[in-house]
Fold this protein.
Amino acid sequence: MSQNYLRTDLTTWEIGPYHGALPVPMRLKLQLDGEVIAHAEVETGFLHRGLEKACELHPWKSLVSYADHLDPEGAVFGEIVLTNAVEEIFGIPVPERAQCIRVILCELTRISSHLAYIVRMAKMAGSETIIHYVLRDRERVLDLFELLTGARFSINFLRYGGVRFDVTEGFIERVLELCELIRIRIKEYNDVFTYNHSFIKRSANIAPLSKELIRHCGITGPNARASGVCFDLRKTYYGKAYDRVEFEVPVGVGALGVVGDVHDRFIVRLKEVSQSIEILKQLVETIPSGEYCNLVDNKISRAIRGEAVSRVESSRGLLSCYVLADGKDTPARVQFTTSSMFNVKLIPYLISGVRIEDLPVVLASLDLSVAEADK
Amino acid sequence: MNTQGTWIVSWFDLVGLPKDLPHWVYTLVSLVCVYLFVVIPSAVLMSYLDRKLTADLQARIGPNRAGYAGVLQSIADFLKLLQKEPQFKWGLRENLWLVSHTMALYSTLAVLPLGSLALLVDTEMSAFLPFWATLVLALGTMLLGLTQASVPGWFGGIRVAAQTLAGSFPALIALVCAGVRAGSFKWSSLVHSQSFALWGWAAISNPFQTVAFFVFIISGLVILAIPPLDGGLSQSDIHGGVSSYLHGRRLSLFQMGRLYGFFFWCLITVVLFLGGWNLPESLVSHLREGESWIMLSFLELTCLLIKTFFLMLVVTWVARVNTRVRVDQITDFSWKVLSPFSLVALMGASLWAGWRAL
Amino acid sequence: MKNSIFKSVIVYAKDVFFGFWSILGSCLTAFPYILRIGELRKEVTEGYPDPVSSKTADDLPARTRGLLFNDIDRCTGCHDCAKICPSQCIKIEDEPGSDLTKRWVSIFDIDFSKCIFCGLCVESCQPNSLFHTKQYEGAAYQVSDLVASFGRGQLTSEQREKWALIRKSDQNKKGLS
């Protein structure tokens, strides 16, 4: 804090699109008072790819391969929100088996995305060993994706009315093996990283997210749940296959600091990984038999016009999609609303008052995805 | 020259050079020899072992392409850095950093205790001399940071200065603890008061000395900004602070300086607390009677270097597994934890030594 | 007064002890990795390219979407794959051939610098001539080397005339029978 009898000025520091402190390409204009950030401005848009416009130019069949590039780490969430909206417009029912397979993919993607979050936090905090352990285990999840869908990240697997292929032979056993492996590894991560004193010093009591800020900026997902706002779309609205499993929604309680600080956001995501394992174990053993896809050859009828909004709880927050069809080969409008857009809006409020050395950790704790934010 | 420096004369005999050159020639040659044959090989070996150990900890292979199992990796990195172009022209102030950096670090070469015969400076103040050199080094690094026209440089410079100030106090007190036990600050008497066996080491002899040992090594990490306590040179937010604009040859100079600082602080810790170069008594008396000075100094140097490398690897292990500490938390830790513990250790060590003298 | 000083000293000592203990615990958890104890602590990296991989092509799953390959003898030249491709990386040129059931595909180029390996072309291929191989190493030194050509080559004018005659006679045969 600057004293009144010593004249000090604020230092301006612009961190450009690429910097070690930033997890994603964006520009931050900071005003520093000593080592504390007094004021910040954010500028994004460096990864704008025109995804929504591209969706208007391509036929319905190839839209799914665009939607899974919305958030490369959580590909299936983009696909599922788009296919739900289109199925609602055209009235295509989805069989039970396909819904279960979709939810299994969602939970696997959630695990993969949260493991990548641990890697980013550890990199910014400066601990290198846990990064390699976590990446090693994330490779097992990606191997499962490759077994089921053929690709590791951009899976392009969902179709209108179901999924592209059926579950292969060894898939269920390998999912159960993976659940067991991750359960053992989480204990190891807790020993090495989560309750390590130096990490707690770097993350507890830092940048707590208050409920007023959540309401002001529209924050959803694990960031909001870590501050005590218990809203999870899987429980409240979704239905689909989630009502045949039992799981808890972890909420931050501030065990090692205040509620909603960086450590809470970290712990909530670790607990979500454990809950995803529970969901997977319950689902995989009870997949209903039946068709895996209702609509052969993806023929969308041209006579139907309409619009629909669908939402899904992705690993970063609430993801929603609006589709407008007016009887042509291509949609008239596709719009995605992602949680990272609101997280970017939150940044200037959250990092005021934070020390400059904590900036990388705070930005990594929000789980930003610039691909989602800039589309 | 003092009697301890006779080793260099016997080496000269071996090689066949004349014996009655002026003293400064002997000193210069011995400094160059120490640098070339002790410091540089240890730096090369140490950086390779560091990377291999880090890779083992992280369940991966590590360097394995340059040479058999990657042993030439450090040399390959050094050669790569040498051929990079510097981006900025250096002015007067940056060259001032270069001069003070070089003077500070490499003046300690004369003081390095490398064996019972290989001591150039063995006076009552010899244990404090490396310590003053680290203060000059910190001043130089702060100057380098403040001369840059960018925020990372200013922040890096100020943080390094704050860290050094915070770490110096406990380091000094711990050093005094070691001297209290041995009775003087001469290298020879510090090592002579310990023995080869594990229970003769200063760190084990007395619980206050154990505390002093931990305080000394940790405050050394604070002073020299060695991971995990390298807030002043933090990569993630200020891109390395003072080294954010050093490239190529200047960066290799800077990194070499940091590695050398780590090496000599661990060397001094080993000499003060972990038994130094002591070999088993029977072996030493056999070698002294047989007048095989070269064998004796070689064995002592090997023993010393093995212990130093082991200590450096333990510090590397702690650094890679734990997160980096924020710079204000480092200074808090130094003032609020290390300093009280060092004062308690000093009081206890003095009482213990006084009790034994009664 | 005495109580509060004593309590703060106890809190301080606990904090220091907990810090030391947790750091020691982290280090000891990571230590067995140096000695490679147990199945869960093997090293996970390999020294690519010696060997290229410990896994063979059979170890990859059957559905792996590697580089594309077109069996040109079955390709009918229907352009379905080029129409559906989101990045428009397939270039096809075709003309009537000697066979009435399919066209002569003279140029069939897939530009792998644009391909996103989504698999939509394979899905939409009716005669099942286009498929994914399991090959994943597609790096080249020049961008022009990244284009894979499967076409049969341009026809000369004599071949065109000859085949036009064959087509006419086939159509007449069909018309008569």
Notes: Residues 31 and 41 of chain B are 15 Å apart (CA to CA).
